[in-house]
Amino acid sequence: MCAHINHLSCLTRSVFLAAGMILSINQAASALDGKIVDATTGFGIADATVTLGGSSARSDGDGHFHLDGSAAAVQARAPGYRATAVPVDTLSSSNGAIRLTRFEPKALYLTVYGIGSKSLRDGALKLISDGHANALVIDLKGDRGLVDYPSAVPIAAAIGARKLTTISDLPALVQSLHSSGIYAIARIVVFKDDLLANANPDLAVKLLNGRIYRDRERLAWTDPFRREVWDYNISIAVEAARAGFDEIQFDYLRFPDSPQSLRLAKPANRAARVDAIKGFLAEARRRLTPYNVFLAADFFGYVCWNLDDTGIGQQLADIAESADYLSPMLYPSGFQFGIPGYKNPVSHPYEIVRRTLDQARERLGIPAKRFRPWLQAFKDYAFDRRVFDADEVAAQIRAAGDFGSDGWMLWNAHNTYEGAGLAALDRQPDDEGSWQAQADSSSAVSSSCF
Q1: What is the mean pLDDT of the chain?
Q2: Confidence class of residue 65 from pLDDT cuts 50, 70 and 90?
Q3: pTM across the whole model
Q4: Smallest Cα–Cα separation from 75: which of 266, 289, 394?
């Protein structure tokens, strides 16, 4: 989620031919051609993102790419794989092939407070060390606007977002997680930001009477049309990428779902709402280009079914344009109207997850690996108040697996997952070919990070 860029010094041209692959390094013209391949099968990987310095391109259907630019290393990533960086001057030894290693994250969520709590953190890490998961989603900017690490973004301190530190050393935390083979996802809550909205009312969503709008939790929101809000959140994402996170995940990437008429920087018709969310993601992708970090977007499960923007700017196809991963929140409790054929979603967790993912893929025509859903690991709040324990969680995980998504993420706001009944995962190799599960994850994460 970093790139170290140096200009190539040699002015020669080398052409390598092997197994139908062509690599050309034209250093005078600053051009690079190569192929992205699966490290296990050797087959080409389509639609991989490849970066060289400030330039970015997508591989074609056979995995081939062309880039104009110059740098010491070429970087590559694709959904379903670990990102990698390869020194340009070593590509000749691989006949121009850049190999990506398969990886499927199975993640547990830790809040601003959860990552700082030894008991909650160690509970999640113990599940990982026992083979039940292999990734963490960690709040860096939480639901109430708190930024939980020593951010250098000036506005964070100015608005009071830095009043609580639960991560004292962000790069050290990521390094500790990686040393235990853990995939690290940085969650950033975007437009729901009580602290920024109250400190800077000109950036807040307002009611028609000029008062600051507040949602059902009495929390204020920032205006998705305001570029200052974009810059603040993307600057936090850049810090996460520099610290080494594997993935940046944006949540509350939407307008408020309010029945009240709201005042914003411009008229919030459907086209304007969609353009704002689409524009934010495109700008985030542009600024994160040098870091070769995956970009993910969270959105309501009904967005997979609705043909409009659900009134909040979340249009499925437009989100997919810039996000590497699509992360619909497929909590059965959130489907208050059910889906076709299933009026009681909490009684059909498998069908809710599987049919919703099928619907989204059918609409977009993209690979299943572009999806990684949020799954429910908390008590139902909308229907019969049932506890979602081992059976319900297992059904959702099975649905995601049968669909072919790139793993899953469990949501529990209390960060307790012992009752989820997670089955041990198959061990997966890391970039060096070993899963590094020999170390006890719960003890490998240094306490100096907190």
Answers
A1: 89
A2: very high
A3: 0.90
A4: 289
Three-state SS for 382-419 is CCCCCCCCHHHHHHHHHHHHHHCCCCEEEECCCCCCHH
| Position 4 pLDDT exceeds 50 | no
CATH number at 13-100: 2.60.40.1120
> CATH 3.20.20.80 residue ranges in the chain?
106-449
Which CATH number applies to 106-449?
3.20.20.80
